[in-house]
Amino acid sequence: MNVLMTETSTQNKPLLRQPSFLRHAVSMALLFALVLGIVGVNPVRQTLAPMDLLLSYPGWDNAGIDSPLVNLERSDALDHRLPNWREFRRELREGHIPLWNPLHQLGAAGIQASIYEGLSIPFLVYALTPNEAMGYTFAILANYLLAAFGAYFLMFFMFRNRVAAIFGAMVFAFCGFNIAWAHWPHLTTSALIPWVLASQLRYWQTGRLSWALGFTLSVALMALAGFPFVALLGGISSLMLGIVVLAVELRSTGVNQTMVRRAIGLGCAGIAGAFLALPGLLEVKGILDTTDLSIRTGGTIFTPYDIVNMFGFDFSNHLGVERTFSAGIPAAVLTLLALYFIFRKPNLFAVFGLLLAIFTMATAFGAAPASLVRLIPTFDYNGWNRVTLLFGLSAAILSSYSIDCILPTKFEQTYRLHIVILICLLQSINLGYSFRQFNARPDIETFFPDTPSISYVLSKILPGQSVVADESFLFSGSLSNYRLPELFAHGFRTDAQKQIATDIVPSHEVSYTASMFQCSDINFSSRDIVYAAVRFILGKEGCTSAVYETVGTDQRPTAALNSGALQGDLLIDKPFSATNAQVLFGTYDQDYAPSALTLDLYKDGSLVAHAEIPPEAVRNNQFATFGFSQDVPLVAGTYRYVISMTKPDSQKPLSAWAFETVAGATYQIGSKVFPGMPIIKIVEKIGLPQNFSIASVEPGISVIENHSVSGSGYYVNGLSGQPEADFGPVRLATYRPDDLTVDYSGAVHGWVVFPIRTNKYWRATLDGRPVELDKFLDFFPAVEVNGPGKIRFYYDSSHLLKTLELCLAGFAASVILLIALTGRTSRPRTGTG
């Protein structure tokens, strides 16, 4: 190790000949084909957007389109990324810069906030493609191609071996982290890390200004890519690489002028990149400054023993997005083999890859004391298991090094080349299988289809009004894809916003940033529903609530209903009017049940309720709803239920899920009796206040309209307490998302409120004169009035221009210093291995 570290310098190393552009072009073309093959999508007929998840929810049952569900963990693309991207794209195509997004939680900073990826390369690809579904596919492909090409150059600059570089590029681009987080900004940020490292290394090797500027651009794009914690991991990788090559140079040549100039030059280039990204990062800081992050804590879900999953066991066990990190079985074997080669033939870049692996073990796999890990900036409120990204980078470097050691540059031993080609083929097949386990490729026509309820609401809703949707429409925020603002959309929330949301739906949170709830969870008597101008509520038909449900322990499937009807007793302890009954079924991974089903409810031998549902209404491991033709009044007492298949002779089985233990209860299938009770709910419609009405636009879904919300803005006589919101005297005159005008026709003192989320950059004028902008509920913008007037609310973007001017000045100063430092530094000859 010491000998090699002394003799190997990354600067001024004479090489054989100038690299061949044609060879690089062939390598890149091969890598391009491998990426397309691993993803395996036909962009003309398919899309990579996770519409399989969208269409698995009842809100889209009447869209007339079906798609097999591949993965449940793709909701963020549907309730966060795509709603923002679609709004930015619409605004840009209409000729406006989307500095304010009215759809995100009733209003948020627009494209300039890097957290929404609007300043990223994949969004640019998406925005420029005429067909949205195709554009999203190209955006995902762009990320993988960026990751692959960047990793290729990094591996080539390290080992001068194109075959090894192609293999390492595949490994990094499709490592488990990047496959699992395909629809998050995690991948958008991760894809740029190899470019940061490659340009950093190449500048150190050559001293060329072009590579320093490449480092600047890569740093800026990585910082703007949308996920700061992954960008931090890129920064840590860059720092580690810098320390390794600097240490080798010091041992090899000692301190010299070229080394000092290039080290300072890299610093200037990095600072220049930071200045380019600073306006977007400051917008993110403004969002986080109004958010309570104390609930987020650092930590990892892994133990050191979980490293065995590097062989792909995570895929066979479906451990999920947060636990997936395998980079493929061939890559794992070559990574371990690299430890042997490092011992026999030390290499500084292989040592760098080993250091990345050690850092990953210390953090992601919990090998280091937690108190020490928390000293790293931002690790106290981010999941450490996401550091497994660096395992992918480490595996790429170490596996490339193994191939470089196995495969001589001149290919003197042909059998070794054949072995390596076989390994590459196995690796691409492994990665393609892994990609398909996580990412669906539904037909292109599945891209956000319209439904009768969505079309109905779109035809009636006005600017400033909002909607709430229950769990029938996936996580809250999914309907924002249709330009329907949702108060509960995915994202960080201010304390004032949390109070409003909690008053409307007390149990809305399923995570720190996401919401999902039932229609029956909504507090329809909340004043905040009116204050937030929630005009429509979309949910399951009738907006029902479970009045009776079985409770027990140890769930298991019943015997197949093919052998006989499922029947047993239910004890109802209070009277109510039943709308439907819901039963949890298992279809054994079939799309639907093999037969239609009937449910009969008896009281003292007399039939009191009957319902039949088609096979399509029964899905695997989901509740099937038996809707009664009319509400059924049930009194307290014992009822007999009978659930039957209309075609029990079907070759495919169907079971219900049951609690194994329910206080001595039993159920019967055919002639056999079993302990326990099926998982059953009986529900009734909830009562609505008089100002709400229900429109049944399509089967299974109800659209509830709030008639108290009749306009776009309203008048209140005070900013405290619970004043009455009067929409009558306020009329919307002009509207743009970031600039709108309302006319107030009232004659009394009070405040005019426009129900959007505001921040410190919103301003107001009254009859053309600037006035102070107040806040109602510490959330909505309000202007004090004493009589009729014209009120303008607008988003003041002048702070962006000032910040941009300052950052451009800092960028220019850094680049000028970089040019001065680069000067006429001698360039070493470069070549190929």
Automatic annotation (TrEMBL):
The keyword Ribonucleoprotein does not apply. The chain crosses the membrane at residues 21-41, 133-156, 163-184, 219-248, 260-282, 325-343, 350-372, 384-403, 415-435. Keywords: Membrane, Transmembrane, Transmembrane helix. The keyword Transmembrane helix applies. This is YfhO family protein.
